[in-house]
Amino acid sequence: MTSDERGARARGGLEREVLATVASATTPMSTAQVHAELGPGLAYTTVMTTLARLHDKGVLRREKRGRAFVYELATRVEDVEASLTAHRMRRLLEADADRAGVLARFVADLSTEDEALLSGLLSATPEAVIAHPDASGPTPGG
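RESULT FIELD:
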């Protein structure tokens, strides 16, 4: 892959390619296996770094096998985008010293429906949130 092709990759494109590769596997994959699936145009260390970052974001689970890690999705395929978005939101919140101001602004900009959903999530037990993680499904606690 040339530097022009790498530069043309949409932001997050490599992460999506790596996630799709891991998601399509029937068993956990090593860095070498993911690298082989993606083709020789990427450096092995780039794939390794991307896998580690996705693990740090909570999207991939990893386990040591021999001297290497193997990776698999930490969540359902349908929940990957929500997990990545939540990670970005946490990172942005943690970057601002005025957390209360950031959260207040976020809530002020929510639609009435999203505000009600957030309120329900905040008042629900963790078990209820896990049981109904899909915003289009039943609201937690009710």
